[in-house]
Amino acid sequence: MLNASPLISLAFEAERVVELRLVRLAWGGPAAWVEAQLMVAEKMAAAVEAMGTLMTGGSPERVVARYREHVAANAARLGGRTSS
Fold first, then answer.
1. Which of 16, 28, 33, 59 is the most buried (most CB within 10 A)?
2. Residues 6 or more apart whose Cβ sits within 8 Å of residue 54
């Protein structure tokens, strides 16, 4: 069974990235357009990566760990902090 602690951490970390992205989108302009495109591309790539991990025998724990890595990178890029 998947440990809930990394999932809870992921939820809090992702919430911060959503907040940072919403602010960037709310400001509008070219930066908002780029962020929206990047967000969609990142989500698609992360979903494909997660599916590949699971299809090749990877664990759900590894999928959560990779999502947390992606979220941390986005938080750093957007100027936020992570609790990792």
1. 16
2. 60, 63
Which residue type sits at 47? A
Amino acid identity of residue 12, one-letter, is: F
Residue for token digits 């990566």? 49
Integer Cα distance of 69 and 46 in angstroms: 11
pLDDT-derived band at 81 (thresholds 50, 70, 90) equals low
d(CA 28, CA 50): 31
Kindly tell me if the per-residue pLDDT of 7 is higher than 90. Answer: yes
pLDDT band at 47; cut points 50, 70, 90: very high
**How far lies 20's CA from each of 16, 23, 53, 63, in Å?**
6, 5, 28, 23
Entry pTM: 0.83
Question: Any idea where the domains of the chain sit in the sequence?
Answer: 4-78
